Amino acid sequence: MQPVTSRPASEHNVDSRDKKRQKRNRACDLCRRKKTRCDHDPAYPNIACSSCRNYEKECTFSEPTKKRGPSKGYVEGLEGRLKRVEELLVNMLQDMPPNEIADVTAELEKDSDAYKKSSEENKDAYFFAGSSSGYYLLSRLFPQDQSHPLNQMFPKPINNNDDLIIKRPSELRPSSSGNNQDWKLPPKGLMDYLLNVYFERVNKFLPILDKDEFYKLYEREGSQSSQVIPIALTTCCKVIKMLDKNHPIFAEYGVEKEALKKDLTFQLHLHHLPDFLEPKLQSIQLLLLNAAHSESWLTQGEAWLSVSIAIKMAQDLGLHRASFQPQGLSKTELEARKRLWWSAYILDRYVCAAVARPLTISDADCDIDYPESPDHFHYFAKLSSIHGESIRTLRSPKIQVLPDKSQRIENICKFIQQKLVEWENNLPSHLQISDKEFDQISQPDSINPALKEKLENGAGQLYFAYTAVHLSVNKYLFSTNIDQSNVASVCQELIRKAFYTLSYINVELLLSFWCFSSYFLTEMLTIIFINCKNPDPAIASEAKYYNEKLKSFYRHLEETLEQPSLVPYIDLIFKLGSGSLEDKEKDNNSQGTLGDEFLHQTSLINNINGLEWSEIAKLLFEIDQGSDGTKFM
User: Fold this and answer.
1) Any idea what the Cα angle at residue 486 is, between residues 481 and 492, rounded to 5°?
2) Are 593 and 583 in contact (CB under 8 A)?
3) 491 and 497 in contact (C-beta within 8 Å)?
4) Which residue numbers delimit the Zn(2)-C6 fungal-type domain (predicted)?
5) How crowded is the C-beta side of 181, counted as CA atoms within 13 Å?
6) Burial letters 148-163, b for 16+ CB under 10 A, else e
7) How far apart are CA 629 and CA 623, in angstroms?
């Protein structure tokens, strides 16, 4: 056997020129002719394959690769079939009457208009694609012909942030909601009045809707707009709930409050089918509107689901990211989208706290700035951030099983309280209630109109929200080793000032932000129950006094909410949670009667399932037994 020799220089040059065209697994010329497996290794080009060595040949790769084309007559056959189809279509059109052809043409034009309108509505639609998305990688690997019409169907980067914000492809289908001609709207004057009340009394505190954008659609398209009518009717339903049944506006237009509300609600259920698969600003607004204004005494679990879906839609649209700068939007429109996101953020904190559910938004996922205006909404968002931190830490299941649970809870509460103090100190004067103003509020006989206006335009709402957060943090301290008398005094002072403020404003104002008002009243009720068991007679007596005042507020609100009374339930829990064992045994008969009265109100159960009675009972038990297991009452 002859030794392996190197290839000539000329052949080596030919091989170098053809190197780019060769594949690593390509067989040599000899193995291809004999159809045998080639074990030539491209890593060692000077070493021939085993077949070539046996035949004392050199491995060459000179023969070009053969590419098989279509079979003979295939292209001609396709052309013939296409020609026959054209002839059939021509013959069919000749046999059809002209009026049928016109009908088909009109139907096609109608479908084309629907597709065109849908494309126009979605032309500025974007969605958020995280940094791990493969869109930007695929676009670099497979560059697209920008002149090709199908290029519009593929995602596009926005301002070079192709790993963050992607333009949503146009939807080649009619709009899912469409224009519905079956809406039976109330008189325009009545509807305009209800919408004006919403924007003047409700939306300014929680700006879910952008007033300018809403009225631009409402005045331009009116009942023909599939976007504005569901939102308009939803806001009208929420305002109707706030108004007294004897309000002059109902008499002016000859309608009854309950009948009007039922009719609008029925139409919304009948004509409007929400699309949860295609994120839109209108869908987010509708979900948040329904979650923010509960129809019952307390926030329900459905509100948590609505807020969660709205948040996921908002995140898909990139509202939570500062890098989201859609082309063609003005600064005013961007600020409106920012307010919508923070409205969802605030609702997430308070709804989750009210129904004891996990938070949906993680602060680590958001880098959007706080809203610039209005001022009270800016500080409300900051307060909600503090509230979210307290929920995340104090309600964590993991903290309940730690051996040093009491000390950890105490440290967390002190940290949150310090942040609340800093938040309160940073409030501007028109949103902060000074001690001097509280002295004026404590004397309701002399009402200061300027102070009343201040309380009803941001300062009062913020103080209610602040009190709710402060009380929700302090109630965890009752089960620790900290001085209970000091905690009870602090809570009692907060409740005292809250009642001063409540007595100074119109109680109906609470209904304009009912999601937060109901949570605020519930937290006060929880602390009142706890303080009624306090060993200090002064604190216990004052707590019982405030319990009666709170029940009077609930009775006053019953007339507007038109819900079963919550007072019997409060009385039942109050009797079970206060007094000595002897008093409880003495009042067995009266409690049984009260319990029977409550059990007959079956509809009330559905209205109070958002209240954390299990948590209240647990706190009362821990207080009664003491944090170290020793009874101190």
Assistant:
1) 125
2) no
3) no
4) 27-61
5) 0
6) eeeeeeebbbbeebbb
7) 9
List the beta bridge partners of residue 127: 166
Q: H or E stretch including 73?
A: none
**Cβ–Cβ < 8 Å for 59, 28:** yes
Give the Cα separation of 459 and 431 in Å (integer): 4
Dump pLDDT digits (tens) for 84-113.
888 888 787 777 776 666 666 666 665 555
Tokens representing 564 are 């079963």
User: And the tokens for 48?
Assistant: 């021939």
Buried b (16+ CB within 10 A) or exposed e, 460-476: bbbbbbbbbbbbbbbbb
- Long-range contacts: 15-20, Cβ < 8 Å, 24+? 15/45, 15/61, 18/61, 18/62
**Residue 390, phi then psi, degrees to nearest 5:** -70, -40
Euclidean distance between CA atoms 98 and 94, whole angstroms: 9
Q: Please, which residues have CB within 8 angstroms of residue 515's CB and are 6 or more apart in sequence? A: 291, 292, 293, 294, 299, 303, 347, 350, 351, 354
Per-residue pLDDT at 136 exceeds 60:
no
- Report DSSP state, residue 157: B
Stretch (H or E) spanning 165: strand 165-167
- Hey, what long-range contacts does 547-550 have (CB within 8 A, 24 or more apart)? 547/574, 549/499, 550/521, 550/524, 550/525
For helices 375-394 and 405-425, angle between their N-to-C axes, nearest 10 degrees = 170
Rg (Cα) of the chain, in Å, rounded? 36
Angstrom CA distances, 96 to 103, 116, 238, stand at: 11, 29, 56
Q: Is 294 left (phi over 0), alpha (psi -120 to 50) or beta?
A: beta
pTM of the full predicted structure?
Answer: 0.69
Highest mean pLDDT among 270-279, 345-354, 441-450, 582-591: 345-354
Of 50-59, 207-216, 303-312, 321-330, minimum mean pLDDT range: 321-330
Sequence length of the chain is 633
- What span, in angstroms and rounded, lies between the C-alpha atoms of 542 and 504? 20
Where do the structural domains in the chain lie, given as residue ranges? Answer: 27-63, 75-121, 126-167, 373-579+608-621
User: Is the omega angle on the peptide bond into residue 374 within 30 degrees of 0, that is, cis?
Assistant: yes
| First vs last C-alpha separation in the chain | 107
CB 417 within 8 A of CB 480: no
- Token pair of 208 as six digits: 């879910």
